[in-house]
Write a structure and sequence with these properties.
With about 220 residues, this protein is of the alpha+beta class. It is about 20% helix and about 35% strand. The strands form two sheets. Strands 4, 5, 6, 7, 8, 9, 10, 11 and 12 form a nine-stranded antiparallel beta sheet that branches. The chain has a four-stranded antiparallel beta sheet with strand order 1-2-3-13. The chain is globular, with a radius of gyration of 17 Å. The termini are far apart.
Length: about 220
Amino acid sequence: MGIGRREFTKLIGLALTGAIIDPLQAVVTHNEYYINKKLGIMFTIPKSWGFVKIKDFGKIKDKQILDGFYESIKNEVYEDLGSPICIVTKYYEDLPEHDGLFSPSIILKITPKSEFDSHGHKNFEELIHMSRKNDNSVLKDYKIVNIYVPYTLNNCQFFEDDSEYLFEHKELKKPIKVKQKSIKFEHQNFYYQFSCHQSLEINEKADIEFEAFKKSIKLI
């Protein structure tokens, strides 16, 4: 039996899916610290980086160009994928000198486990394998380039992979090759996904920042 477009989008876009949860509910941010008591997580963000207001995310995604057919149904795709819980970026300030710049970023999206109940997986690891097998994406020229051995942090199993895609945006003069690090794990009744984006092509690197951020993650 086949699955519908919405279910398929959720499966192949596990790295992009997210539940819409009020980002200000039970959230504390102080300097580089982010604590969300409702979702049971805390971490520190790179120094000099900042948080993007969720309401401003709409402006960002509307100008991003998706792959092929997905661009023609962009509104439906974003409706299916939902909104991120938190966006952290290097050029977070709304300044004229930041216009047209690609900014390294970290995006947190969370999906209730119940969203995937119909997929018939035995555990989260099997769901991860299913999503990698169906590695088509709404992102242009997307491909997984490295899969890491699962590791344990905070008594949870973490799944990590690196991928690449072509980032096209209406404010950019030309497309940019972007490297994405995806970090996935389950905690309480949710699946967590951190997507870390950088571009080596234009020297907007953030490997050191991403590694420090990963080590700072604490589940509470």
